[in-house]
Amino acid sequence: MSLYEPMLRHLKSRELFGAIDRVPALGMLVSEQTFEVSNPSTGEVLAELPDMGVEETRAAIDKAHVAQPEWAALTARERSDILWRWHQLIVDHTDDLAAILTAEMGKPLAEAKSEVAHAAAYLQWYAEEANRIYGETISPPSTDRRMLVIKQPIGVVGTITPWNFPASMVARKISPALAAGCTIVLKPAEQTPLVAGAMFALAHLAGFPEGVVNLIYASEGNTVGRELCSNPKVRKISFTGSTEVGRLLMRQCSDQIKKVGLELGGNAPFIVFDDADVDAAVDGAIQAKFRNAGQTCVSANRLYVQSGVHDEFVAKFVERVRELQVGDGFDPGVAIGPLIDGHALAKIELHIADALAKGGAIRCGGGRIGSDGNFFQPTILSNVSRQMMVAQEETFGPLAPIIRFEDADQAVREANDTIYGLAAYFYASNLKRVWRVAEALEYGMVGINTGRMSSEAAPFGGIKQSGIGREGSRHGLEDYLEMKYLCMGGI
Asked: Which domain of life is it from (predicted)?
């Protein structure tokens, strides 16, 4: 595996980086084919990893299938203890994991450290929740019966994680499954597999038995995904990514009626009412729109601002956005890193061109930065209408389109006019309005007077075509458990 010196300068332990390409080789078949992982800021190659396919995936599933009964047979406390050790190793290696994450994904180093801390928080939460898997008793219809419900792990879980949060998504998906007694086969995004590899290296140090956690590197997900969906030894698929791919995975799982957990696309509205604290709303919009260069599934995609505060909000928002520094995530003071690749750049340019052709206006930004890397100026559009692509599609970039509205019913109606239902945000102070709008918005998560709401203690997920199931909280653990009813007669 090649070494990338700017990243290595930030590593305290080069051994951790050196172990990444060896993680899949721990007791399983590894492809001789390789693929490259590159830095989106510079285009430089970070590493060469084994490019795995059907045979390697099947071998990993077999390992997980063999290991699962013994893992499930451990006491909850024993599983909890191993998760606690993994949590502590993640905490101890925060700086190294963040440096790897910044190098392969591009987000600023401070933001990467925050993500690693978030990943550790999920491990801590489910280390605790492992001890809280409860059944129930039911009052029987006769005195000679006893009726109860027990919870058991689903079995082998196939997981596919995205490139935009390559550390926290690994922890959020697999920690509840492991706490429940399931075993894991994980395929990280091909753009950002290195931090997942480092986390799995630490998982082995934490003491997970062989076959419990299994990692698949692959340059494309189709063959791996098909095997995970079609293999009868896999009892559940957990996927975060686009709605298009989510539909495909559901179809592939349908023949076996396989359980799926899907966290898919979003088209989040961000609504500012006349009675809002405008300065607080601007702060929230910066968080909700430009965190991770706008490359989050809960990123504010459409900003609705009521006429009474529209001009004030836009003026203050533009002033703040112009101050945001764009650059390599390792450089001090950088607030926004690169987009992940050239396709992301092309999409944001397409959305801007479409908006301008239909009467939109650029208030700041609007173009690429430099010829090297995938950098784009944080951009604000005004005079935006519902007919524009930017109001209908998820941009996944640092582009904030602002739509003026007159009344609350209009804002809620337009906010709900989408196939997506992941996250929504609004700012208001009138308590009656807060309750009515929060209940009327057709989204799985609603941020009220805040631009950031993710927490390991809260259920993360959407409705409509934004997904199925929840991650995080006690509800995330339930998604990896089967309910079994026991009826005892003749007692």
From this structure: Bacteria
Q: How confident is the model at residue 25 (pLDDT cuts 50, 70, 90)?
A: very low
* Structural domain boundaries, residue 449: 268-455
Rounded to 5°, the CA angle 158-164-166 comes to: 50
Q: Domain holding 101: CATH number?
A: 3.40.605.10
State residue 27's pLDDT score: 44
pLDDT tens column, 205-237 = 999 999 999 999 999 889 999 999 999 999 999
Q: Report pLDDT digits (tens) over 421-469.
A: 999 999 999 999 999 999 999 999 999 999 999 999 999 999 999 999 9
Question: Residue 411 contacts by C-beta under 8 Å, 6 or more apart in sequence?
Answer: 269, 271, 273, 304, 306, 405
Q: 460 lies in a domain? A: no
Per-residue pLDDT, averaged over 232-260, amounts to 97
Angle, vertex CA 308, rays to CA 304 and CA 311, nearest 5: 70
Model-level pTM? 0.94
229 catalytic? Reply is: no
Calculate helix-pair angle for 243-254, 222-230, nearest 10 degrees: 40
CA 219 to chain CA centroid, Å, is 19
| CATH number, domain containing residue 420 | 3.40.309.10
Residue 302 has pLDDT above 80, yes or no: yes
**How many CB atoms sit inside 10 A of residue 483's CB?**
11
- Among residues 263, 394, 456, 471, which one is catalytic? 263
Catalytic option among 182, 229, 253, 297: 297
With respect to residue 491, please indicate whether it lies within any of the assigned structural domains.
no
189, 194, 200, 205: CA torsion to nearest 10: 180
Residue 104 annotated among the catalytic residues of the structure: no
Strand partners, 50: 34
